[in-house]
User: Which sequence fits this backbone?
C-alpha cells in the first residue's frame, strides 16, 4: 500500500472535492504506457475518509499478480456520503440507462457531460443525438466481437461505403447519429 498515493480532486463546476487513491506502477513511463482502471466502489464505501473505497478486495487490482505482464494505473475515487455514482432511486430496483442523468460525483470523476453505457439499439442511440454536449457511448450497437477475418471484411466494406457516400453527398450526414473516427 506504500505505492498508493492519497489525493483530493477539486472540481469547480460541480463544487465537489473528491478524495481518491492513485496507484502508478513503477513500470509506467512515456516510453512504456500503461492501461487505466477507474475503480468505482459500492454504496458502503462512500464518505470522505479516503480509506473506505479501498476495502473489500479493491486492492487486488494493484497486487503483483494482477500487475504482472499488464501494468495498469488504478484510480480509486471516493463518492461523497449521501450521493451515488449513478443518480437513480435505488428503491425502484431497476432503471433505464437512457433516462439516467449523470451524477455530480461521476461528472467530477470523468469530466464528461454525457456517459452512455450499454447502448444496444438505434432507438437508444437516437435518444442522445439531440444533446448539446459531448457524448461518449459504448455498447453492443457500436461494437460486437468479431473474428480477425470478419474484422478485415468489415474494414473493407466500410472503406467502400465511405467512398460511395463521399461521392453521393460530401456534406449530408444528418441521418448518422454517431460517427466512429
Assistant:
Amino acid at each position: 500500500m506504500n505505492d498508493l498515493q492519497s489525493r483530493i480532486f477539486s472540481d469547480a463546476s460541480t463544487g465537489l472535492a473528491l478524495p481518491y487513491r492513485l496507484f502508478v506502477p513503477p513500470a509506467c513511463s512515456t516510453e512504456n504506457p500503461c492501461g487505466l482502471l477507474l475503480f468505482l466502489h459500492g454504496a458502503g464505501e462512500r464518505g470522505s475518509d479516503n480509506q473506505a473505497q479501498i476495502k473489500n478486495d479493491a486492492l487486488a487490482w494493484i497486487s503483483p499478480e494482477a500487475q504482472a505482464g499488464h501494468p495498469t494505473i488504478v484510480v480509486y475515487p471516493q463518492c461523497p456520503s449521501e450521493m451515488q455514482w449513478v443518480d437513480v432511486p435505488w428503491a425502484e430496483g431497476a432503471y433505464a440507462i437512457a433516462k439516467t442523468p449523470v451524477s455530480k460525483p461521476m461528472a467530477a470523476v470523468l469530466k464528461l457531460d454525457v456517459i452512455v453505457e450499454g447502448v444496444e439499439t438505434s432507438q437508444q442511440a437516437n435518444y442522445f443525438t439531440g444533446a448539446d454536449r459531448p457524448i461518449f457511448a459504448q455498447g453492443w450497437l457500436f461494437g460486437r466481437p468479431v473474428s480477425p477475418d470478419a474484422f478485415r471484411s468489415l474494414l473493407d466494406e466500410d472503406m467502400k461505403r465511405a467512398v460511395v457516400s463521399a461521392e453521393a453527398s460530401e456534406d449530408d450526414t444528418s441521418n448518422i447519429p454517431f460517427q466512429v473516427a
Summary: The two ends are 39 Å apart (CA to CA). Strands lie at 4-11, 16-23, 35-38, 72-77, 114-117, 135-138. Residues 112-171+177-181 form one domain.
